Amino acid sequence: MSALATITRLAFWLVGLSFTLSGMASAADPFARATVSTKGTIYAGEQVEVDIDVFVPNYFLSPPQFPLFDIPGTVVTMPDDRGMNLNETVNGEDFSGIRKTYVITPQAAGDYALPAIVIPFGYAAVPGQTSQGKVTVPSLTITVAAVPGGAGGTSGVTAGEMTITQTFDRDLAGLHTGDALVRTIIIRAVGLAPMMIPEPSFDAPAGVQVYRHDPALSEERTPRGETTAGLRKDTATYVFTQPGKFSLPAIALQWFNPASGKTETAEAEAAELTIAAAPATETALAPPAAPPAEEPFDWLWWTSITAAVLAFALLLQLAANLAGRLETWLDTALTRRARSEATAFRHVLDACREHDPARLETALDGWSRKAGNLPLSRWLDRFADAQTRRAFADYRRSRYGTARSDHGTPDLARLRTGLKASRQRWLVEASGDGNGSASELPALNPALDIRPRANF
Q: Which CATH code, of 2.60.120, 2.60.40, 1.10.760, 1.10.3470, is assigned to 29-144?
């Protein structure tokens, strides 16, 4: 009974331990939180930074997928350079986290709530194993106040600081009628995205035409890559159509400073100009020039071009014909060589060198017919020496002798050397007859040797 009681207590202890471990595992679940990092009163038009943190036990195995969401009445962006790795201990458990910062710009006063944001990821719930998880970002409400003095709580322009600088492409003195002057305005706004910077107004008095160019938007960054201000560059060209004194109006923008709680003005000062009349030229009194005569059709140039094109086409045709004839000649030459007496005799020598009696029989028959040396025994009697004839006789006995007789192994190496020398003598005699090289085709009706010969 004591053993049974011990086993029972051990079972209860194991069950309790499993419940404890499961409770610890459930306590160490991933979680998310949202925090407004912009401090103080938030005004319409001001950029609000919201930090979204995602935490998992152990570590991430695939990064969280932060979505870009919409909030009506705002502009939401997510700069890519604001990700941050976090580590935190919660209730004695170690968590790894990743923070992403969203920038929300409300356009009017009111309350703005974050939508339901679901963020998926992969993490090591058990070290070495990938678990898929997701979290829902807790609800968060941003309260936005109206800009003091703003119409209907609209944003206007809210920034930490705003400055305007201007440059001209030339000296303002010494301008004449018809001259062009390029005015460049650069607006720098701290804590404001470039696309939120308002467009400056380039007004022009009578007698001056103004042409605006497309703006250039950019960001000012620190050496560490952090954004410090938005930049907007606008360019306009003024053209003066008449002489006189002109004033290019100042360019001013009002903006609200949350730090001071006051509306301030950034301004590029006006430019005062005196435009002189265009200097007179002697050619102004000259009679109008005659219209340029139409150039005659250049027949020589076009004829030369046409002739060059035709010559090039003819050259291509000739090259194609020549290539075709060369290919045909090469094919014919290769075919003639493959069927020549020399090629047939080389087959004989190859069969002797490889000690292949069956192949030698076929090669000798082909060569003798190609060279017209039929019967082969009569050719050997005339051009081969005694050792070559004896080697040939041994070869024939080994091929066609009776099975009882001991023929031995034919000396094909000696036969090869003798046949090679015999052919040389045959070629010399054939060339000495004045007929050139030996005939490659046998006679139409070759004379047969009717003399009695030993039958090997």
A: 2.60.40
